[in-house]
Amino acid sequence: MRIVSVPSEQGNLDKNKGCSKAPPLIIGDLECETAEIIAGDFEGTDKSIYKKARAVLSEGRALFVGGDHSISYPLVKAFSETAGGKRALVVFDAHPDCVQFFKPLSHEDWVQGVVEENFVEPKNVLLIGVRKTHELEREYLKKRGITVLSATEVKSAPKQALEKLLKLVALNNSIYVSVDIDAFDPNIAPGTGYLESNGLDETKFFVLFDALLKSKKVKAVDLVEVNPSKDKEGKTVELAQKILERAIQNWALD
Ligand SMILES: [Mn+2]
C-alpha cells in the first residue's frame, strides 16, 4: 500500500482555493510520494497525476490525498486500466459532480467524465451522501442509471443503505472509493469549499467505509476537498486523518 500526495487545486474553478495545502497536513509523518503538479497547466497536471497513479496502482493498493475533486478523473482512469475483473466506483459526496462534460474536467463534472469515457460502467457507480443536486444532474443520473444514496436515505434507513452497498460490492471485483469531505455534515467537517447542511456523521460513514474495506476489493481510495484555510480548530484535517488511518489499518490486516 502506498500513499500519494496530489496537491492540485486546478479544477476548483477558484472557489475552494487552499485545498492544495491539505496533503502534508493530512499525511503528516507517514511515508508518501507526490504526483507532480504543473502550475497553470491543467492537462499536463492531469497527465502527470494519471501517470503516477498508473505506475503505483499497477503494483498494488494506494491512497491518494488531494487536492480538489478533479484529481479523481485521472485517478479513476488509472484504476480502470490496472484493476482486474468487474470495476465499481463508490463516491461519498454532497454533490453528484456531473454538472456538464467539458475538458479539462473540473471538480464539478468528473463523475460524468468517468462515465462517458467508460472507466466504470454507470450501473456500477454509487454516489453516497448526496443532498445538493442540479436539475441537469438529476436528469443525467437517471438517464445513465447511476445509483444515488442520499444523505437522508443513509441517515433514515442505514440498514438498507448498507445492503445496497454490499450488493454492489458482491457484484464487483475491484472498487475505487472517492471521499469528498463535504459528504460530512459541516459541523464535523467545516473546512471545505461547498458546505451543505444535513450531511453524514462519522458513525454512519464508517459503517459503510469499513464494509468496503473489509471486502478486500478496494484497490484505491482518494480523499479530496479538505481546505485547511477554511477549517475550524483543525477538525476537518483530523477527520481526514482518521479516514486515512482506517484504510491503512484495514489494508495492513492482509
Ligand atoms: Mn462535493
CATH class membership: Alpha Beta
Secondary-structure element series: EHEHEHEHEHEHHEHEH
- Oligomeric grouping of the chains: single chain
Question: What is the spatial order of strands in the main beta sheet?
Answer: 2-1-3-8-7-4-5-6
Bound molecules: manganese (II) ion
The low-confidence runs, each spanning 5 or more residues with pLDDT under 50, are none
- Averaged pLDDT: 94
Specify the structural class: alpha/beta
Total of DSSP H or I helical runs spanning 4+ residues: 9
Tally of individual domains: 1
Question: How much of the sequence is in beta strands?
Answer: 15-25%
- Total beta strand runs: 8
Q: Could you say which overall geometry the principal axes of the C-alpha atoms support?
A: globular
Radius of gyration: 16 Å
Q: Percent range for helical residues?
A: 25-40%
CATH architecture: 3-Layer(aba) Sandwich
Biggest sheet features: 8 strands, parallel
Give your account of this protein's structure.
The protein has 9 helices and 8 strands. By secondary structure, the chain is an alpha/beta fold. It has one domain: Ureohydrolase domain (Arginase, Chain A, 3-Layer(aba) Sandwich), CATH 3.40.800. The chain has an 8-stranded parallel beta sheet, with helices on both faces. The chain is globular, with a radius of gyration of 16 Å. The structure holds manganese (II) ion. The site of manganese (II) ion has 7 residues, from loops.
Q: What is the structure about, briefly put?
A:
This protein has 254 residues and is α/β, with parallel strands linked by helices. The chain is 39% helix and 17% strand. It is built from 9 helices and 8 strands.
